[in-house]
C-alpha cells in the first residue's frame, strides 16, 4: 500500500500504519519465498503442483518442497538473464509472447470445452456410425503391388500355374508387406482404399483376384487368407477416446467460426 494513494489526513495516516503489519503478514502468506527481494507468489507453486498431480503425483509436503526449490532456482536464473538483457532481445521477446499466448489459449479452450460438453447422446450416435462404417467382419489378406497392369496380369497367370503367392510377393513394390509374403494382417474394409476393399470383400477364403485391381498406388493382386467376425470394444470402453475426439471437433469448429468473423488483412 502506497502512502501517496491515501488521503493526507491524520486519521488516514494513522489507519495506514496500524494496518501495515497485518497487510505485510497477508502478503507474506501469499508468497513461498523471496529471491533478492523479489517475491515468488504461492499461486505459482499451486499451478506447478496441480500439473504434477494431474500426471499422477500425490500432493505431499515433499512435492511442495521440490516445487519451491524449483521455483527459487528458476527465479535466480530468470533474474540473471534479465540482468544481462536477454528479455530485451527480439527473439526472446517473441518466444515469451508465444508462451503467453499458449497459456491464454489453453485456459480459454479448457473453459470453452467445459461450457460446451459433448452429450452422451452425441457420443453414442458417433459410436454407432463408426460401427456401421467398419462393418461386421475382419479380413486377413495378402497383396502384391506392381506398377503396371501387364505386370499384375503376369503374376495372376503365374498363380494360376501353381506358383506360390509368398514367393511372387518378393517382387512387390510394398516394402511393408513383401518380406512377409505380402501379408497385411487383419483389418476391416474401411482400412483400405475403395478399389482394394471392394475387390477384397468379394473373394472367398484362399482365392485371389483374377483381374488386376487398380488404385492410386498402382496395380494389386489380392489374396484372401481368412475372415472373422469383428469384435469391437463396448461404448463405455471407447467413450473417453470418442469424447476427446469429438471435443477436438467442437474446438476446431469454434475456431473456424471465430476466424470467419475476424478481420484479417
From TrEMBL:
Alphabetically sorted, this entry's keywords are: Isomerase, Rotamase, Signal
What are the EC numbers?
Answer: 5.2.1.8
GO terms (molecular function) for this protein are: peptidyl-prolyl cis-trans isomerase activity
Reactions this protein catalyses: [protein]-peptidylproline (omega=180) = [protein]-peptidylproline (omega=0)
InterPro entries hit by this protein: PPIase_dom_sf, PPIase_PpiC, PrsA_foldase, Trigger_fact/SurA_dom_sf
Q: Which residues form the PpiC domain?
A: 136-226
Q: Does the keyword Repeat apply?
A: no
Gene3D superfamilies linked to this entry? 1.10.8.1040, 3.10.50.40
Q: What is this protein called?
A: peptidylprolyl isomerase
